[in-house]
Amino acid sequence: MRIVTWNVLGLTGYPRDVAPATIDVPGSETNCAHFACVFGGLDADVIALQEGVTHPIARDIAGRLGRHLATFPSPINWPGHVLSRYPIVESRTFSHAVDNDAVPRFSRTAGAALLQVSESHQLWVVCVHLHPGDVDLRILEGDLLKKRLEQLSQVCENTVVLGDFNCDVSEAVHQHLCDLGFTNVMEAVGGGLQLTMDTDGVKPWKIDHIYVSSDLAGSLVSAAVIREPGFRTDPPRPAGTWDHSDHLPVRTDVEWP
């Protein structure tokens, strides 16, 4: 099984003022065809997207790929999606507004899709996009994520948590995952953490991660950050060139079930 997580910058391309001249606006035929080709080229069984698009646009792309789709709305403007070769049994949205919160918790997106991988095997795919600037809010989000994972484990213990954490592994949310027995795939089989924002014009960060639950950790085969042409550009950026996003996809292969 191949699993990918990727913050796709709303399918606008990066830099946003260059890419639309080639791929048009999200939802257009040119744009949907382009990103369906890019996603298909990842050859993944499961793709989790952050900073996505409206459900109709995501459904168009999923249809082109022959994939099942779960969309997790955002209380502000950054929905998430799971594209899956496997049927989706149910989905749950965690990113909702709470009365009297100045900024909604999981203001970007968070949700879980339960996949029917085989007749006797199910898998939770938990897609998260944490707040980029407010450390205290990320602590709250981490606490809530831990509670949700504990609840999900009562339905199915096989779980992948992945997405744009907007923080390095020193923050509390990562410790929560370790305490619950999750393994960071890059640390386990990817040669260590690598930059996931690493193209000309952006600040380098290691903020996109894939974690697997303890029952899946022994089945990990490999992990990598995808750095091929089209995904990143070395400085100085040649005039007119652009990347699919300002983030890089993270991929893992699991020999399961």
Number of strands: 12
Average pLDDT reading: 97
Classify the beta-strand content into a percent band: 25-35%
Could you describe the largest sheet, including whether it forms a barrel? 6 strands, mixed
Low-pLDDT segments: none
General shape: globular
Radius of gyration: 17 Å
Question: In short, what is this structure?
Answer:
The chain has helices at 20-23, 29-41, 55-65, 135-152, 172-179, 185-189, 214-217; strands at residues 2-7, 46-50, 68-72, 80-84, 88-93, 109-118, 121-129, 159-164, 183-184, 208-212, 220-225, 250-254. The protein is α+β, with helices and mostly antiparallel strands. The protein has one domain: Endonuclease/exonuclease/phosphatase (Deoxyribonuclease I, Chain A), CATH 3.60.10.10.
Give a topology summary.
Layout: E1 2-7, H1 20-23, H2 29-41, E2 46-50, H3 55-65, E3 68-72, E4 80-84, E5 88-93, E6 109-118, E7 121-129, H4 135-152, E8 159-164, H5 172-179, E9 183-184, H6 185-189, E10 208-212, H7 214-217, E11 220-225, E12 250-254
Parallel strand pairs: 1-2, 7-8
Antiparallel strand pairs: 1-12, 2-4, 3-4, 5-6, 6-7, 8-10, 9-10, 11-12
Helix pairs in contact: 2-3, 4-5
